[in-house]
Amino acid sequence: MRIHVIQTGIFAIKSVQPEGRGKGNPILNIVLDKNWTEPLPIFAFVIEHPEGLIVVDTGETARVAEPGYFPWWHPYYRFGLQEWVQHEEEIGPQMRAIGLDPRDVRWVLLTHLHTDHAGGLAHFPKAEHLVSRSEYTYAKGTGGLFRGYPSNRWPRWFNPTLINMQPEPISSFPVSYPVTRAGDVRFVPTPGHTVGHLSVVVTTSEMTYFLAGDASYTQALMLSEKIDGVSPDRATARQTLERVHAFCRATPTAYLPSHDLDTPDRLANRKVAIASSTPTAVMVGAV
Ligand SMILES: [Zn+2]
Fewest C-beta in 10 Å: which of 20, 118, 155, 196? Predict the structure, then answer.
């Protein structure tokens, strides 16, 4: 099994978004914040697995530069987001550059449906797309558009498999969803950043990789269990961060969020989130 990280451009968001500021309306907090983050990477992942090619999130599309791509009336796109993506930075061309054909992808796993995770869907018309039922329900249609998901830009053929968690605990998570038959690639529920947010746990004989999506924007924010500025449900977000933290304490884990500058280094050099982790077997399917 081999995991590749692919950077599909950069974005800047308001400072209040990754770190949060406690209470108040998230969108209003973002609109009123005058400070932008430094440009941050938009990462996606490709896993070469014996059961087939797996993509985790699809990154962003260069189409974001087209006038009117995002709804002009939505305050988040107008005041809260700047993105820079070149055509050759999209996930399709980048996969071809490393000798992988996007048409060979078996599964596209979506941590959530925000634009910078679902923007590259058009590259994978033949794959099976997996997303949580609650995320898809929340993101689709006109309602989803208002809630900040550009559902009008999803490819017409986009008809994802909606997954339900199985009673298969893994470490601190009481349920999970096995993607591969081997059970070494599985979804765990990490709601908070969005209602149906998922993360992907990849277990190898050497260590575990936690593909976190936006469960937190950085590893430091996960370790300090700091809730971000867009989570609609703070209690749920807190519980998720506690669970992810506990997972990293129990198991040597490389923690790989989608916008953390250190994600490629952690992946390449197998750097664990908590160095003092003592190797313990990951309890897959234990009752
Ligand atoms: Zn997001």
Answer: 155
For the segment 224-241, what is each residue's pLDDT rounded down to a tens digit?
A: 999 988 888 889 999 999
Q: How far apart are CA 201 and CA 47, in angstroms?
A: 12
Count the neighbouring beta carbons within 10 Å of the beta carbon of residue 120.
28
CA-closest candidate to residue 108, choices 149, 147, 59: 59
Distance 205 CA to ligand 1 centre (A): 30
Going from the Cα of 167 to the center of ligand 1, the distance in angstroms, rounded, reads: 26
Confidence of residue 29 (pLDDT cuts 50, 70, 90): confident
Strands (E), 57-207: 81-84, 105-109, 128-132, 161-163, 177-178, 185-189, 198-203
CA angle 234, 145, 188 (to 5 degrees): 45
Ligand 1 centre to CA of 69 (Å) is 18
Residue 240's Cβ-count burial label (10 Å; 0-12, 13-18, 19+) is: buried
Instruction: Please give the DSSP secondary-structure letter assigned to residue 247.
Output: H
Tell me, in angstroms, the distance from the centre of ligand 1 to residue 228's CA: 10
Please tell me the pTM assigned to this model: 0.94
d(CA 102, CA 93): 9
Residues 6+ apart with CB under 8 A from 192: 215, 227, 228, 231, 233, 236, 237, 238, 239, 240, 241
Going from the Cα of 76 to the center of ligand 1, the distance in angstroms, rounded, reads: 12
Q: Which residues surround ligand 1, an ion (CB under 5 A)?
A: 114, 214
**φ, ψ dihedrals at 186, nearest 5°:** -145, 150
